[in-house]
Amino acid sequence: MASLPALQAIFRRISAVFGVFLLFTAAPLAAQESGEDLLLPLPKSALDAEGADAAEDKAEVARLGDAMEQMALQNPVVARVNGHEIRWAAVMASAQDLPERYQEQLESVFPALLDRLVDVRLLAEAAREQGLSEDEEVRRRRVELEDRLLSNVFLERYVAENVTTAAVRARYDAMVALRRANLEVRARHIIVETEEEAEAVIAELDAGEVFPTLARERSIGPSAERGGDLGYFFSRRMDPDFAEALNALEPGSYTAEPVETGFGWHVILLVDRRDDDVPSFLDMRDQLREELTREAMGRLVGSLRQRASLEMFPEDTASGAGGESSDQ
After folding, report:
1. Highest mean pLDDT: which of 37-46, 67-76, 251-260?
2. SS3 219
3. What is the pTM of this model?
């Protein structure tokens, strides 16, 4: 495992490749992305380097990538500014305002990010020495930043508690059930009078018996002569318990437990489901999580608004209560 001095040596090497890269805000980066002129140039990635030093530069970047994996676990101190420690995690967090193409090569811009935090710290210390920490404008902005920080952290934790994997899965299952309820299915069933008889039928199916044959022999329903075939139908038109059990099946499978309705006890075989194009859970997971997140945040903010003493002042108040005509 590389030591901190070894990591620092790698950083110095990469820094030499890139040169000066001062990033006080994300604006210079955004400007370069849009083609505007900059006072400070962006660094050239070692991955784009040419000539005799290209292979060595790329190797240094690769070494830095390996080192960063270790640092993610250790979160070491990567700099000290007049005694103030800057840790690895703080440097990585500061990368969130970078354009996407820089997000994809953090190994390359890490030294520049570290330089930015060092310079920001030095400027902040200089500002404190001049008493700016008590300046009215600074106080106002501090309150604004604190409000944003508190609201973001509060929302993040609320969403983490309420939008769980189990909640996402439940939303998916409900979506699948709804979509399948609107698809035609073909099924067979064996209906008997008691749960014990139905369990015996399932045991025979598990042992290899053929469903249509058992239906003709055991079922007491009118479909028995057709091997229990119900043809094509919409499951939503069936008894709710029957439909729920049917919608949970895949074509070719039968219910592992007897299903009770007002007509008796059923063993159900799903033969076919027309146009079953339901996406998989993995394909839908991110979309459903986003939906649940929006809903959870909407409920939270809505409940807070209901409990709050809230007054809104639109720009156009001419039509408000007690307003006078402009002709008078």
Report:
1. 251-260
2. coil
3. 0.51
